[in-house]
Write a structure and sequence with these properties.
Length: about 240
């Protein structure tokens, strides 16, 4: 495929109409249309249309991270990733949800948030079919099937698939209860336990029996109740 050339006066791409400040930049751009990739990585032979793209790629091999956050010290291999990160410290949140108006510092976080409104779960487990909104949640879930438990308690050596499970478990040793009810002052080790406790104040009973009108605030009580119907269904 012939490379597009600069027109007189302006360096304009004849294929897509983009304008460049120099003939050199136009020629580099033209590689995209010609599907030419003259810059090749000597380590893995991956090829790129631009020299800068090759430089960034090489950092995946060298682990070089030249862009360092002055606030927290976190380092990045790409300047664009560093710029997005700095928004966290600046409190700038330019990406706003058009449904609930919640704002985010990064576009990727907004995209993930939008799935709470659409109920979209694009990441599906190939083993059990369970779907997730976030890729990292799927990756953590896969540890269950692989029976991998990388997070170990240093006190009793109980192992867990997730770090937050280990944190919750450690409170059984420290007796720490950071989640406090604002109504009665009762404290809980886990946030989920506090949320369930609130139902005792609101009289909310989300666990409803399919066989009779009874409803329960606690899942374990609901399960025990279900056993009554199961026993009735089984002939003696």
């Amino acid at each position: 495929m012939a490379l597009p050339h600069a027109s007189k006066g302006n360096n304009v791409c004849e294929i897509c109409g983009k304008i460049y400040s120099s003939k050199t930049n136009l020629r580099i751009h033209s590689y995209i249309h010609a599907n030419e990739k003259p810059y090749v990585c000597e380590t893995c032979n991956r090829a790129f249309t631009q020299k800068d793209s090759l430089k960034i790629h090489i950092r995946t091999h060298t682990k070089e991270k030249p862009y360092v956050c002055e606030v927290c010290g976190k380092a990045f291999s790409r300047k664009e990733s560093w710029r997005k990160h700095t928004l966290i410290h600046s409190d700038l949140k330019p990406y706003v949800c058009n449904v609930c108006h919640k704002a985010f510092s990064q576009n990727s976080n907004l995209k993930t948030h939008l799935r709470t409104h659409t109920a979209e779960k694009p990441y599906t487990c190939d083993m059990c079919g369970k779907a997730f909104r976030i890729k990292i949640t799927l990756q953590t879930h896969l540890l269950i099937h692989a029976n991998i438990k990388p997070f170990t308690c240093e006190i009793c050596y109980a192992a867990f698939t997730q770090n937050n499970q280990l944190k919750s478990h450690l409170r059984t040793h420290t007796n720490e209860r950071p989640h406090v009810c604002e109504i009665c002052g009762k404290a809980f080790a886990q946030k989920s336990s506090l949320q369930k406790h609130y139902w005792s104040h609101t009289n909310e009973k989300p666990y409803k029996c399919d066989f009779c009108p009874k409803a329960y605030s606690w899942k374990d009580k609901f399960k025990r109740h279900q056993l009554i119907h199961l026993k009735e269904a089984v002939p003696s």
